[in-house]
Design brief:
Length: about 325
Amino acid sequence: MLSKILTPNAALLKFQGSANLTVEQVLKRRSEFLTTHGLNVISVRAAPGAVAIAIARPNRRILHLPEVWKHWNPNCLHGNHDLLIAVKEEDSAPLFLSPKSNAPHTLIAGSTGSGKSVLMQNIILSIACTNTSEQAKIVLIDPKLGVDYFSFEGLPHLQGGIIDDQQNSILTLNELVGEMNRRYSVLKENKVSNIFDLNKKPNPTERLPFLWIIHDEFAEWMMTPQYADAVSDIVGRLGVKARAAGISLVFAAQRPDANVMPMQLRANLGNRLVLRVDSEGTSEISLGEKGAERLLGKGHLAAKLEGEMGVIHAQVPLVDPMFIATLVAACKEEIK
Ligand SMILES: Nc1ncnc2c1ncn2[C@@H]1O[C@H](COP(=O)(O)OP(=O)(O)O)[C@@H](O)[C@H]1O
Ligand SMILES: [Mg+2]
């Protein structure tokens, strides 16, 4: 054994690789480890000179948001776009989602109860606590009538409240395309290539807030052809051009299969945050490879981010509703 680390979820063991110890051999004995030894092997990966094995702990330790944020000191002078969303399994380092260094748009996938909404709550809090409501705006769309987001009501970044009907959603998304094009002319006028530079300028003609479009359970509405067409069209038109304009989409679905999610749409959502899914097939569709079906659920995450190597395993912190209420109240104070 070369190294062993205990994380809140798993024991990460590294064994020296040899002809007698390969990834394939460990995988072949996966069910034997479970049935004979009671060991649930989450993942087996090849590393230089080693085989890295993750084994689930009998009892997981819940990770809470305050302990994760304790070491976070973002520079918020011009707003912040690097969102702290989880803690990496490998080295306990924070995992960030950034529309600046990663792809501009993100797909979140995971079966019911895997922790999609909790991850979105993390994203919303990360934005709200590191940006003033002038620096970032959030459009929250939730077909489930906002039941997971009650505590965010009154958050100054949430412009039009929570959108819970299709017509309103299509209208709002449509306006984004116009807004993006308008933003490009503002950039041109100020001779900068993106809003990050624009907002750093001492005297721009206008400062532009970063726009986050967060759409929970969007597959529910994609069953309606009119909605599917409108959303696919809008996302296609936004594409990667949205990054420089400071517009980022975060869409969550249980199973992003072809029937609820056209290929083109999936291709536009470049960052993948995949929680536990119900089959290897769904893992392949959402993550691009197998493995997410073996995650432990409840915020256990496999992330594939544009600009980062391979799949990163991580744990999303749990957010206490009381804590959300406290933070939302603090954000309201800020604008008084
Ligand atoms: N990161 C997490 N840490 C601990 N428990 C979690 C986490 N994420 C989710 N859970 C648990 O799972 C439940 C369902 O999570 P939720 O985000 O609503 O799932 P989904 O939106 O995918 O259906 C939560 O109420 C909570 O009890
Ligand atoms: Mg949910």
